[in-house]
């Protein structure tokens, strides 16, 4: 049995740890009838005198409302994360996730009255970042152009035409963060 367990490899530590943390937060939310999610893992406009506000600027990317919400985000993160973590390194992935969480959390707090919950900004960051994975300096990857048109274009149109509880702005900002990270890494 011990030999069997040794075959499993924790191959993408940031991606896997992030996934397990978000799963733990989801289970805690279910156990507390979502009180923990509201207090600690959902970003919304409140006073900056509220000490939890500073935690929520980052922690909203761990919270999810339902199993479907969680699995929709983390299936993509688990597909893209290991490849991105191998390409850019674990330390850079932590940095990119943290910056994207902060930027989306802060802009949501400053510009919108709605709550922000989930990892979709991180998903869109990873989608755009993955378009740079095999890019060459001085060249624009066609995959990047198509991804921008399909994914971000859909979000712009949905943000204008559809009234739902999905933050298309967070998707766009996450995608822009991924594009900026990819561009920066390509030119370093």
From TrEMBL:
GO terms for molecular function: serine-type endopeptidase activity. The chain crosses the membrane at residues 20-41, 61-81, 142-162. The keyword Signal does not apply. One of its GO terms (cellular component) is membrane. It is a multi-pass membrane protein. Its main location: membrane. GO terms for biological process: proteolysis. It is found in: Membrane. SUPFAM superfamilies: Rhomboid-like. InterPro entries: Peptidase_S54_rhomboid_dom (IPR022764), Rhomboid-like_sf (IPR035952). Coiled coil: none annotated. Keywords: Hydrolase, Membrane, Protease, Transmembrane, Transmembrane helix. Residues 52-184 form the Peptidase S54 rhomboid domain. Pfam families: Rhomboid (PF01694). Belongs to the peptidase S54 family. This is Rhomboid family intramembrane serine protease. It comes from Clostridium bovifaecis. The lineage of its organism: Bacteria, Bacillati, Bacillota, Clostridia, Eubacteriales.
């Amino acid at each position: 049995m011990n030999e069997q367990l040794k075959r499993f490899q924790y191959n993408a530590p940031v991606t896997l740890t992030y996934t397990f943390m978000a799963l733990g937060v989801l289970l805690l939310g279910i156990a507390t009838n979502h009180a923990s999610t509201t207090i600690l893992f959902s970003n919304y406009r409140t006073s900056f005198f509220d000490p939890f506000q500073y935690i929520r600027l980052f922690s909203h990317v761990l919270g999810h409302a339902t199993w479907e919400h969680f699995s929709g985000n983390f299936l993509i993160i688990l597909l893209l994360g290991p490849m991105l973590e191998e390409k850019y390194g674990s330390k850079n992935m932590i940095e990119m996730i943290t910056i994207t969480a902060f930027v989306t959390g802060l802009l949501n707090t400053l510009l919108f009255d709605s709550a922000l919950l989930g990892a979709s900004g991180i998903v869109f960051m990873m989608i755009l970042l993955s378009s740079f994975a095999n890019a060459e300096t001085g060249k624009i990857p066609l995959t990047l152009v198509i991804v921008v048109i399909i994914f971000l274009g859909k979000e712009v149109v949905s943000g204008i035409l559809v009234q739902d509880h999905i933050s298309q702005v967070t998707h766009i900002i996450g995608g822009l963060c991924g594009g900026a990270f990819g561009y920066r890494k390509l030119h370093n």
